[in-house]
Design a protein that fits this description.
Elements: E1 2-7, H1 22-26, E2 37-40, E3 44-46, H2 52-58, E4 68-70, E5 89-90, E6 97-99, E7 105-110, E8 116-121, E9 127-130, E10 150-153, H3 159-167, E11 176-179, H4 189-198, E12 201-202, E13 209-211, E14 224-229, H5 235-241, E15 250-253, H6 262-274, E16 280-283, H7 287-292, E17 298-301, H8 303-313, H9 319-343, E18 348-353, H10 364-381, E19 386-391, E20 394-399
Parallel strand pairs: 3-4, 4-5, 9-10, 10-11, 11-12, 14-18, 14-19, 15-16, 15-17, 17-18
Antiparallel strand pairs: 1-2, 1-13, 2-3, 6-7, 7-8, 8-9, 19-20
Helix pairs in contact: 8-10, 9-10
């Protein structure tokens, strides 16, 4: 089965007409995207968009052999003129199956938002799933018979759609996931590629032709990632976004609870509200133990608070205790954590604070914490395949 993406953008395209935002201003050349539309084996057109005939011609195809045009979502803009010789566009009711004269079989998949998803099977048995913008599958019960060969969906806008499909086995290790319906909320260029690769997905330019069932180019998901940055830099959001497409995640909160501190409780509440409901939270500093066990991906937030707890345990804040054994005890606990990061079989994203670039702390204890956190960050970074520095909400790749 051969699939040509006539467009890969949101319904309004990218850049949006008359939109002054920075994302639209930089969406030029290969980063400009027409509204998403798919041409399958020159016989089936999913979503009719303005300029579809010319887009097909630029990709070396013709719409003259199309036998069925199906729409996946309501069209809110001006009426799209139906090109000559194309059959009328329609939608398949949820759950029903349409068999084309070409031998393709199309099943309508119900969504949790307005629109219809389409599962397309070729005469040779290859299967793809196409989801409308802003939607995820609804009512997924039980395990899928087998994974799809290809899934095209709104990975940036609805990462939970991929998570739901992974949870039931509809997306497997060999499933190629292509991001479509890309809007101006998606980062441009290399930042988009990095974000999608963390989800095991990728984006392709308009006009790309893919062979469904061919050995896919599935991005390697980094197993260990360290995300560092200053206060309110966006590092926790960056870390969370890297795991949004996974159905199960254990969020390791190292800050604990602070009785009588409403401001801290508000911070913790905001973090909880931002995380997917399926994630499980562990309030613990026993990170090495979790890294050594099998299980779903871990998000550790953060190493700075883990170090605070570790220094509390060995009374490392006092100069005399530090000299009499606190330093050795702390280094041993840090070495245990670093060894656990090195040996873990789980996917893990760790968050930490970047310190030492500002004012020198006024107290020996403050300087000690700054120095030890710098050493901890360097040791953990050395064990991670990818290291990111987040500044003003923008992630800079230091490694990977």
């Amino acid at each position: 089965m051969e699939l040509t993406l006539l467009g890969t953008g949101a319904p309004d395209g990218l850049p949006r007409p008359s939109c002054p935002c920075a994302a639209c201003a930089t969406a030029r050349g290969p980063w400009a995207r027409a509204a998403t539309a798919l041409l399958i084996d020159d016989a089936l057109l999913l979503d009719l968009t303005p300029g579809a005939v010319f887009a097909a011609a630029r990709a070396g195809h013709s719409l003259g052999a199309v036998r069925q045009v199906l729409l996946s979502h309501p069209h809110d803009g001006p009426a799209v003129e139906l090109p000559p010789a194309l059959p009328p566009a329609g939608r398949v009711p949820d759950g029903q199956v349409l068999t084309l004269i070409s031998g393709h079989r199309v099943r309508a998949v119900p969504m949790d938002a307005p629109g219809t998803g389409y599962e397309v099977s070729s005469p040779d048995g290859e299967r793809l799933l196409y989801l409308p913008p802003g939607a995820a599958p609804a009512g997924l019960d039980g395990r899928a018979e087998r994974p799809y060969d290809l899934v095209l969906c709104d990975v940036i806008g609805r990462p939970d759609a991929v998570a739901r499909l992974r949870a039931v086995g509809a997306v497997g290790p060999a499933t190629e996931v292509i991001a479509v319906h890309l809007d101006h909320g998606a980062p441009p260029g290399a930042a988009l590629d990095r974000l999608l690769a963390a989800a095991g997905a990728r984006a392709v330019p308009d006009g790309t032709t893919l062979v469904v069932g061919e050995y896919p180019v599935v991005p390697d998901v980094p197993r260990r990632v360290l995300v560092t940055g200053g206060a309110r830099s966006g590092k926790s959001v960056e870390a969370e976004r890297r795991l949004e497409t996974f159905p199960e995640v254990v969020y390791v909160a190292t800050g604990g609870r602070r009785e009588g501190d409403p401001e801290w409780a508000a911070r913790v509440g905001l973090h909880r509200e931002r995380r997917p409901g399926a994630w499980r939270t562990e309030d613990t500093c026993e990170v090495a133990e979790l890294l050594g066990a099998d299980g779903p991906p871990l998000l550790v937030d953060c190493l700075s608070l883990w170090l605070t707890d570790a220094m509390d345990r060995v009374d490392a804040w006092e100069d005399e205790r530090w000299r009499e054994g606190g330093q050795g005890a702390l280094r041993a606990r840090v070495a245990e954590l670093v060894a656990a990061v090195r040996g873990t079989r789980r996917q893990v994203v760790l968050v930490t604070n970047e310190v030492g670039a500002g004012v020198v702390p006024a107290t020996p204890a403050g300087r000690r914490f700054r120095d030890e956190l710098g050493r901890l960050n360097a040791a953990v970074a050395a064990e991670c395949e990818e290291v990111l520095l987040v500044v003003a909400g923008q992630a800079v790749v230091l490694r990977g």
